[in-house]
Design brief:
286 residues; 6 helices; 16 strands
Length: 286
């Protein structure tokens, strides 16, 4: 039996960050991950450390906190990041015109210094086509350019866990939680890897699996699970820069992200299965 101040369930980038933060504050920490660090939701992300420009439309505080947090990552793990210019082409018939989009980025420019970003640029249609020759010229009004950071997300998770270990945290990989320990209504720890790990606080950082973990304690944390699929072109550079493209349904946007891992296109945004382990990509998504 082991006693801890904090047990963290889930070794994605969120769980790793919680474990690191707690260990640096002097707490006795144990993190449990059923697979490899960042190997699930973190690995399936678009791999962007972004400042939350989309939240500016309805939640400036989230944009502020996202940029503030991004700046910390730039300072602590800058060698894992690559500055990614992103072009947002605007066409005739799009939901938002050039002036509207530029107004958004004029506001975003105020937050960019927090994450070491650069001010936006406005391009004519001719300049946009020189930067991204693959754009369709018909109806192109121009484009806005802003920058975010591409990150090796799994490497960032491994480094974060390494920092947690260096601060004294115990990290157990390939160790699924099999049961939640309780004293009446109070959670007192977990059982995993044949060990009872007692803790003052247990953090459920299992991402889309949090409901499955909570069920072990006899409670529900129901989620409306959404599925985001990327197409990955490993040997084909679709664009020299990142792109943010308005979808045909005019209600969402699709990233094209060139990176050392290939060119990622996506994600989709569709209802997912109740069990994240049953997530599959469909022909319709592709």
């Amino acid at each position: 039996m082991n006693d801890f101040d904090l047990v963290v369930i889930g070794g994605g980038v969120t769980g790793a960050g919680v474990a690191r933060d707690a260990a640096l504050r002097g707490l006795k920490v144990c993190l449990l991950e059923r697979g490899q660090p960042g190997g699930a939701t973190t690995a399936a992300s678009t791999h962007l450390i972004h400042g939350g420009v989309r939240y500016l439309l309805y939640d400036r505080l989230t944009t502020h906190s996202s940029c503030w947090d991004s700046g910390h990552i730039v300072r602590t793990s800058g060698d894992l990041l690559t500055r990614l210019p992103i072009v947002w082409p605007v066409y005739r018939g799009h939901a938002r015109g050039l002036e509207t989009v530029e107004t958004l980025f004029e506001q975003y420019d105020r937050f960019q210094p927090m994450k070491y970003g650069r001010p936006h640029l406005r391009l004519t249609a001719e300049a946009a086509l020189r930067v991204v020759p693959g754009l369709a010229p018909e109806g192109l009004l121009g484009a806005l350019v802003f920058d975010e950071w591409w990150v090796d997300a799994e490497a960032l998770t491994r480094r974060t866990l390494g920092s947690a270990r260096a601060a004294g945290a115990e990290v157990l990989l390939e160790t699924p939680v099999t049961s939640i320990l309780k004293d009446g209504m109070r959670v007192t720890g977990v059982r995993a890897g044949g060990r009872d790990l007692r803790s003052k606080i247990t953090v459920n950082a299992a991402g889309p699996w949090i409901d499955k973990v909570s069920t072990l304690a006899g409670v529900r944390m129901p989620l409306r699970l959404m599925k985001g699929t990327h197409l990955i072109y490993k040997d084909k550079a679709l664009s020299p820069v990142g792109l943010l493209l308005e979808a045909e349904d005019r209600s969402r946007y699709v990233f094209v992200v060139p990176s050392p891992l290939g060119t990622w296109v996506g994600p989709t945004d569709m209802p997912g299965p109740d069990d994240p382990d049953q997530t599959r990509t469909t022909d319709e998504e592709i």
